[in-house]
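Appendix C reproduces, verbatim, an entry submitted by the partner laboratory led by Prof. M.T., so that reviewers can inspect both the input and the predicted structure.
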Amino acid sequence: MCNLRDVVIFLAGAAFLHTISHIVLPYFITMPLDMGFMVLTTQFNFWVIGISAIITIALLWWACKLNKK
């Protein structure tokens, strides 16, 4: 039905979508973005993009190490 590898690949896809959304975000809104509980600045957005990309790569690497069944 659904094994760990499938779940990890799904999470990698979600992390990739999160990375892409932060890459295109500055094209549609003006920075800094005040969300009430935090302010998203351009520099903080770059950090979010980098960390999300690292998480995506780590999840894909982990999925490659898991057995196909």
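Residues 4-65 form one domain. Additional entries are available on request from the coordinating office.
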